TrEMBL record:
Organism in which the protein naturally occurs: Sulfidibacter corallicola
Keywords: DNA damage, Methyltransferase, Transferase
Transmembrane segments: none
E.C. numbers: 2.1.1.63
GO biological process: DNA repair; methylation
Pfam families: DNA_binding_1 (PF01035)
Official protein name in the record: Methylated-DNA--[protein]-cysteine S-methyltransferase
Length: 106
DNA sequence: CTCTTGACCCGAA
DNA sequence: CTTCGGGCCAAGA
């Protein structure tokens, strides 16, 4: 289990999130059996090598919000990608996780 | 060694 | 809806 480095485990799992769906940092951490490492999921994504293509945009925080300052370039890029794949945002910039949250299995 | 910094989370007001 | 407080832990200064 600990054979594979944390970052790689995160990238692999994130890679399984289907288009049009999102997962939270905490959810990813829990699925990896490390419920206390929610923030480190974010660090892993931040450390993604330029060559590695993964759907990092499908990871948001537990409230269904993008974890970047609202007017930042990063925020707009992530939101744009998600909207392109059909994810909807409320007026307050929130995603309804009941509708768009990823449930492994389902 | 201690302090600070985060793509976080959760419960209680 | 918001704010506050506490918890978490790796990495860098």
């Amino acid at each position: 289990m600990a054979q594979i480095p944390w970052n790689q485990r995160v990238w692999r799992l994130v890679n399984r999130i289907p288009e049009g769906r999102v997962a939270s940092y905490g959810q990813i951490a829990r699925l990896l059996g490390e419920p206390r490492k929610a923030r480190h999921v974010g660090y892993a994504l931040a450390a993604t090598p330029p060559g590695l293509i993964i759907p990092w945009q499908r990871v948001v925080n537990g409230q269904g919000r993008i974890s970047f300052p609202e007017h930042s370039e990063k925020y707009r890029r992530q939101r744009g990608k998600l909207e392109d794949e059909g994810v909807e945002f409320s007026e307050s910039g929130r995603i309804n996780l009941r509708l768009f949250g990823w449930q492994p299995e389902g």
